[in-house]
Amino acid sequence: MYQPLNRFVLFVNDLSHMKKRTIRIFLDGLIILMSYYLSYSVRFEWAIPEKYFNLFLISSPIFVGLSLFMFIFLGAYSEYWVYWSVRDLQRLFIVHSSAVLLLFLVDGVTKVLLIPRSIFVIYWFFTILLLGAIRMVSRTILEIQGLGGSSDKRKRILIVGAGRSGEMLIRQMLSDPLLQYDVVGLIDDDPVKINRSIHGIRVMGNRSHIPRIVRSENIDEIIIAVPSAKSSDMQKIVELCGRSGAAFRTVPGSRELVDGRIAFNRVRKVRIEDLLGREQSSLDFRRVSQLIEGNAVLVTGAAGSIGSELCRQIHVYNPSKLVAVDRDENSLFYLTQELKDRCPIDGIVTQVAHRKKMESLINIHRPKVIFHAAAYKHVPCMELFPDEAILNNLGATMVLAQVALEAKIEKFVQVSTDKAVYPTSIMGASKRLCELYVQYLSRNSECDFFSVRFGNVIGSKGSVFTIFEKQIRDGGPVTITDPGMERYFMSIDEACKLVLEAAAMGEKGQNFVLDMGDPIKIIDLAKHMISLAGFMPGEDIAIKNVGTRPGEKIKEALWYPHENPVRTANPKIYVATDDREKPEQFDAKVEAIMRFAEEMNTSAMLKNIIELVPEYKPNPSMSKQ
To answer: In this structure, which topology does domain 285-620 adopt according to CATH?
Structure first.
């Protein structure tokens, strides 16, 4: 029975936008003419006198022409009839009322036609009624056509969330036949909503009923439509969705919905960020813009996770030039290709520890600010090559900071890590030395040299996330090093935004620390990622404890007690003040560390590191290397 409708809808869909618009205007013209005729018929009880029939014939072109002109002028043809709603009815009311008022005024001023006043009132009523009816009929035809699609091709959908977001999704799926979805039911934890309906779709239960409803109703896919859900709620919902066996997706979180609009094409896979659930930071755009706009900016480690995201965010502020430095020529090539049409960018392949090259770069480009994000970061790997950790992390920082100081660069931002606090790894110790060196160098400088310290970022190259993803793809087991191990996490996007704002507010010698929220247990992270992949943790994918690796800590800290962190104007950024005097001959000891690293004299190198970083607890086996 739906085949004629299907053929008609397909015919209409094949028409160009201009042809559809022309047809709609033509149909409205016919309805206006019909309404105008009905006005005379009702006014004269279906027996129109010859005098007024002639008046109808003479005035019809004026009524139709002026009404259509007002409809076009006031944008009545900008809406899609398939999505026609109460708001569009209100708009039609305003547009048509304006058209009738114009006709009334024209007739009253010219006094040529002298149309009976009651005609205007009757005409207004019939036109609103008929124009609204044809639009609703069009929408209904498309909805019926959608419902009449092949049941074999239509997915059966369960929506979690019977609020505004769920309602918007239902409305779109009902009105758009191309989506080919059947919304079977809704889930909501509000007991008041249970067994009530939205657009004819019943709220079938709360989230605990998800697995049962999926089985009983043969659900193909679950859509989570709760953009404001807390992380704990999202974790539970995702766990239940995973247990149900159905595929599941989510609408964007509230922080992503700048315009507040939910559209089906914005529904996406659930990300680990949705489960970790940090409240996203606001950024002082004006402050950062004053630092970057119209100025050259240099970023080291630009091809890495943090460096590349810094470059993407910096370009938004219209720098005069972005100088991206990295030794990974492949990743740097793709970064410059990505950004070259957005801002002037130079990709420079070099080692940051190459002093002459860095002197040349800085003298040529004269950056106002340098973001130093280049570093070795893998803890267990660096435990095997401690000399390389020092030569690369500390050595590059020393070279770059000295060159920046000589060139009187306004700001030097050292990207640091929470592993620099009470380090148990050579990587953490090297980053702590970088912090101390930047502080030391800035005290006799007019330049603002400072560090920004934060924890792990979600999705960085070689992180626990990428390791877990591969292990899950391979069918497990997912390996954790200790059930009690915890780490701080934030998104790369948020971390870089906060680094930029810290750079804008930073002064020499400061250590900025980003508020990382609550730490996350790595075993919980593993369970969340297994659930996101549609498996049951411990059943479909095993979790295996393999023990801690060299240099790893069970828990991380973000600052030392003596740093006395103070919250800044941005509640996610702290200043950790360290007023302690540096050890005597600090620079000589740092040079000695570098010399011993070059000589691969690990024991002597470690001895000097501990003198500058007494909190460092090295792996006992390292001194034997």
So the answer is: Rossmann fold (3.40.50)
